[in-house]
Design goal:
The complex is a heterodimer of chains A (281) and B (250). Chain A has 281 residues and is of the alpha+beta class. Chain A folds into two domains: 152 residues, Periplasmic binding protein-like II (D-Maltodextrin-Binding Protein, domain 2), CATH 3.40.190.10; 92 residues, Periplasmic binding protein-like II (D-Maltodextrin-Binding Protein, domain 2, 3-Layer(aba) Sandwich). Helices cover 40% and strands 23% of the residues of chain A. Chain A is built from eleven helices and 13 strands. Chain A starts with a helix and ends in a 7-residue tail after the last helix. The relative contact order of chain A is 0.16. Chain B has a single domain, classed as MetI-like fold (Orthogonal Bundle), CATH 1.10.3720. Chain B has a two-stranded antiparallel ribbon with strand order 1-2. In chain B, helix 2 crosses helix 5. The mean pLDDT of chain B is 90. The chains are: A alpha+beta (281), B mainly alpha (250). Chains A and B meet through helix 1, helix 6, strand 10 and helix 7 of A and strand 2, helix 8 and helix 9 of B.
């Protein structure tokens, strides 16, 4: 029995080893993903479907939002069709690694350890900080007020760990935003910790009138889109850098922000200034 | 101990996708251990209650009262024919509304039944529905003549069940029960959906925070479940052997 068990274990671990060997392939550009997209005539983009208004389902079930508009523009410039795949915070990088999607534009914060897994290219198209949504009745003032209290979160958000370690909050992380926010409404936690931009649009939706965003945002962190890591320094990566540069320069990100009713961020204004065409009038 | 930690620290330097972070970082180690412990507690509690539910359900199924039989049948149909994940969400979010709560700060409403409690209740009822049917099959395998013999010796229905029918039925039911309990242990991962901090929850948290720890942590989850289910199967097999009645064909 034990030896059989051991054999199973060894077989399982051997099955996983080849992944390690082929994980990193720096060197020559083969542009596999780019060529695949071009020959197939279709770009598959991983986006959020539960993150209003960046990526969400409208009343007829279509995925729409600011990031979807960006994806549409990418496909249009490449001259290919667009297919959207809904991803979760906890599986988006794996989807990209495994080739289930060609490009990921999914509200992802740009973190150092994530750059090692997927091909993140700048300039970052957006930024947000961490804040909480909590009932006005509690009148929370400081991050310290969260110490020892249950706080709802979302699996996959990098700041769960920070809030837990820095302020001693007890994070209860759900798989989806809907479940976590329902738990807040059910008074199972005193706050919902998430991106300030998303909380801002929730609050302005009118469905959260007894709630507020009472703290100073922390850990402001730019967002990043990503291509497969092998494509980062090749055609696809360079192309996506160009797309983001253009969006900043011609002000389309600021327009999209307005179109989707997102609170204007200074970040986009600053970038727009910085990248101004010196010949433009 | 220090050498082991050093080995895994070096491993991640050489192979960046193989970050066995919980082998050298105390915070992540704590997460893994508490996750395993929660999974064990959840499994043991659900195993216990689901078997109890199975026994009671099987007994009530043989009741002379048609309403009791209908209630048991309704219970089985509901829990056997709906996905356990949906049951968990329903119990925690919908039924959780109606349980009494207490409030430590005037706003928070801490339910008396926590998410762990709901997971135990929901998964026990889910597996219990299958157990009822498993025990029923065992009971039906006990020959009518054995039952008649018991009643001719003056045993009541309850006594016949307890001393004659059930002990024989258990032996017939064990292989099928074994299967269902193995499934139950694996189904505890679904408690992840209502944020019960069991092994899968902690593992997902770790590989979200450290994408480089994805493969090692998945491997860990496999290994832990192979061991947990292995222990369960071995003890069930041992139990089966112990209860064997020579000559009864079981």
């Amino acid at each position: 029995m034990m030896s059989r068990l051991l054999k199973t274990l060894v077989a399982t671990s051997i099955a996983f080893v080849p992944m390690a060997a082929t994980a990193d392939g720096h060197g020559k550009c083969t542009n596999d993903t780019w060529n695949k997209v071009m020959s197939r005539g279709k770009l598959v983009v991983g986006v959020k479907a539960d993150y209003k208004p960046w990526g969400y389902r409208n009343s007829s079930g279509e995925i729409v939002g600011m990031e979807i508009d960006m994806a549409k523009d990418v496909a249009a410039k490449m001259g290919v069709d667009l297919e959207l795949v809904a991803v979760q915070s906890s599986n988006r990088m794996q989807f990209l690694e495994q080739g289930k999607i060609d490009l990921m534009i999914a509200t992802m914060s740009d973190r150092k350890d994530r750059r090692e897994i997927v091909g993140i290219v700048g300039p970052n198209y957006y930024t947000s900080g961490t804040n909480i949504m909590s009932p006005k009745a509690l009148g929370l003032k400081n991050w310290e007020d969260l110490r020892g209290k249950p706080v709802c979160g979302k699996q996959g958000a990098f700041y769960n760990q920070i809030v837990e370690e820095r302020y001693g909050a007890k994070i209860i992380a759900f798989t989806g935003n809907a479940e976590a926010k329902q738990a807040l409404r059910d008074k199972k936690c005193i706050a919902w910790v998430y991106d300030d931009s998303s909380i801002g649009s929730d609050l302005s939706s009118g469905n959260w009138d007894e709630f507020e965003m009472p703290l100073n945002s922390e850990d402001d962190n730019p967002w990043a889109l990503a291509v497969p890591s092998k494509e980062r320094d090749c055609v696809f990566g360079r192309f996506m850098s160009g797309m983001q540069y253009q969006w900043h320069q011609d002000g389309s990100l600021i327009e999209l922000e307005k179109k989707w009713g997102i609170q204007p961020t200074q970040y986009l204004v600053n970038y727009n200034e910085r990248m101004k065409d010196w010949l433009a009038d | 101990m220090y050498l082991i930690a050093e080995f895994f620290r070096q491993l991640v330097e050489d192979y960046p996708r193989w970050n066995f972070i919980w082998m050298y970082e105390p915070v992540q180690q704590e997460k893994v251990l508490s996750g395993i412990w929660m999974t064990i507690q959840l499994s043991v509690a659900c195993l216990f209650f689901s078997v109890i539910i199975g026994i009671i359900g099987a007994f009530l199924q043989g009741s002379r009262n048609a309403i009791v039989r209908m209630v048991v049948q309704g219970y089985i149909q509901f829990f056997r024919n709906t996905p356990p994940y949906v049951q968990l969400l329903f119990f925690y979010f919908a039924l959780g509304q109606f349980t009494p709560t207490y409030s430590p700060d005037g706003w928070l409403e801490v339910p008396i039944i926590s998410n762990v409690g709901w997971a135990i209740i929901s998964l026990s009822f889910f597996a219990g529905a299958f157990n009822v049917e498993i025990f029923r099959a065992g009971i039906e395998a006990v020959p009518e003549s054995t039952r008649e013999a018991a009643s001719s010796l003056g045993f009541s229905r309850a006594q016949t069940f307890r001393y004659i029918v059930f002990p024989l039925a258990v032996r017939v039911s064990l292989p099928a029960l074994n299967n269902n309990l193995v499934n139950l242990v694996k189904t505890t991962t679904q408690a992840f959906g209502i944020a019960v901090p069991e092994l899968l929850y902690q593992s997902v948290t770790i590989w979200n925070d450290y994408p480089s720890a994805l493969y090692p942590t998945m491997l860990l989850v496999f290994v832990v479940y192979i061991v947990l289910v292995g222990v369960l199967v071995m003890s069930m097999n041992g139990w089966e052997r112990q209860m064997r009645i020579p000559g009864y064909g079981l």
